[in-house]
């Protein structure tokens, strides 16, 4: 968690510096177009501040009140960031519509474009770095903050192009018209972040993460693991929680059953790239399992194996043994 805190702190300090520069550009030019970027930078600072706190909270150990840990707080962080972006987008659109019908004089657009271009380049580099780190550290907060900064970079590129267009054409109403377009884009970005946070809070399955985990199990499955079914996944920050049923030979004793369950957990944690906690319910095999069971020298086999059933998301998530599917 120390590295996550350091990354968010860098984002916060950088955001404050760039926010001051953007507002300086706005006061220099009096451009609504630049104000859209400056207003969004306030969101960057507030969001990074809350992200820093959420990562601190997510790093706290489990307790009686939070038996699954505090990782879900990262989804609240993303929700607040998305909501703030949305509010900023609404304000920008309203202000730009007003200014479209009540235009004000703008000036020094070339200097403003240079300042905004510089801040956009900084945000672009930092955003790309944070997305890569967010993925490697399995932190939705850092990744969301990085995507927000990349959105800010796209906005800045549009700003620079728009400011140069206004500067060379002297069509002043373009300032408000382009601001409205940028405001709508910011609104859409806020919606996507809110949608992602709600999905996490509602325990929507992360199909990419779970598919990778299932593939690891399928590629490394043991003969003793006859089938896996009724698999359900929940994400808590950077951790994955899995409930599933594992069918094992019915003549295994409790010690052997425990060893096999532990092997499943160790395999996924070593090779799936995400820290995973398993709650595995073990089922005994029955004669109907024999036709897809690979267990060698089985003393109770009722029929020869005649089918290979690959473990896929569709199969392992059903609440049925493979012979029932």
Automatic annotation (TrEMBL):
Domain Cation efflux protein transmembrane per the UniProt entry, residue ranges: 8-202
Ranges annotated as spanning the membrane: 7-29, 41-58, 78-98, 110-129, 149-170, 176-194
Topology in the lipid bilayer: Multi-pass membrane protein
Entries under SUPFAM superfamilies matching the protein: Cation efflux protein cytoplasmic domain-like, Cation efflux protein transmembrane domain-like
Keyword Membrane: yes
Location(s), subcellular: Membrane
CC terms in the record's Gene Ontology section: plasma membrane
UniProt-listed InterPro entries: Cation_efflux, Cation_efflux_CTD, Cation_efflux_CTD_sf, Cation_efflux_TM, Cation_efflux_TMD_sf, CDF_Transporter
Predominant localisation class: membrane
Pfam families: Cation_efflux (PF01545), ZT_dimer (PF16916)
Superkingdom of the source species: Bacteria
Keywords per UniProt: Membrane, Transmembrane, Transmembrane helix, Transport
One Gene Ontology biological process: intracellular zinc ion homeostasis
Listed GO MF terms: cadmium ion transmembrane transporter activity; ferrous iron transmembrane transporter activity; zinc efflux antiporter activity
Cation efflux protein cytoplasmic domain residues: 224-285
Keyword Membrane among UniProt keywords: yes
PANTHER family the UniProt entry points to: MITOCHONDRIAL METAL TRANSPORTER 1-RELATED
Family: Belongs to the cation diffusion facilitator (CDF) transporter (TC 2.A.4) family.
Protein known as: Cation transporter
Species name: Mucilaginibacter pallidiroseus
Biological classification of the source: Bacteria, Pseudomonadati, Bacteroidota, Sphingobacteriia, Sphingobacteriales
């Amino acid at each position: 968690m120390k590295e996550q805190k350091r990354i968010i702190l860098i984002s916060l300090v950088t955001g404050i510096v760039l926010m001051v520069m953007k507002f300086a550009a706005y006061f220099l030019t009096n451009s609504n177009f630049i104000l859209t970027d400056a207003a969004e930078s306030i969101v960057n600072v507030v969001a990074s501040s809350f992200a820093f706190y959420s990562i601190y909270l997510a790093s706290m150990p489990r307790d009686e009140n939070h038996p699954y840990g505090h990782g879900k707080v990262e989804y609240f962080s993303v929700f607040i960031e998305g909501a703030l972006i949305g509010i900023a987008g609404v304000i920008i659109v309203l202000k730009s519509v007003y200014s479209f019908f009540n235009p004000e004089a703008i000036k020094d657009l070339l200097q403003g474009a240079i300042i905004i271009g510089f801040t956009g380049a900084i945000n672009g580099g930092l955003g790309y770095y944070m997305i890569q780190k967010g993925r490697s550290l399995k932190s939705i907060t850092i990744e969301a903050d990085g995507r927000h900064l990349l959105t800010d970079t796209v906005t800045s590129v549009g700003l620079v192009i728009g400011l140069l267009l206004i500067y060379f054409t002297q069509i002043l109403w373009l300032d408000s018209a382009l601001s409205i377009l940028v405001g709508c884009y910011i609104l859409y970005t806020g919606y996507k972040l809110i949608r992602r946070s709600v999905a996490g809070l509602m325990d929507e399955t992360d199909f990419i993460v779970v598919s990778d985990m299932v593939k690891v199990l399928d590629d490394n499955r043991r003969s003793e693991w006859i089938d896996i079914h009724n698999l359900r996944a929940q994400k808590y920050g950077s951790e994955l929680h899995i409930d599933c049923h594992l069918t094992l030979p019915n003549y295994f004793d409790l010690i052997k059953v425990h060893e096999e369950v532990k092997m499943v957990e160790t395999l996924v944690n070593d090779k799936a790239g995400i820290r995973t906690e398993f709650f595995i319910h073990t089922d005994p095999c029955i004669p109907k399992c024999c036709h897809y069971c690979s267990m060698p020298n089985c003393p109770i086999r009722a029929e020869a194996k005649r089918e290979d059933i690959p473990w896929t998301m569709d199969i392992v998530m059903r609440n049925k043994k493979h012979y029932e599917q």
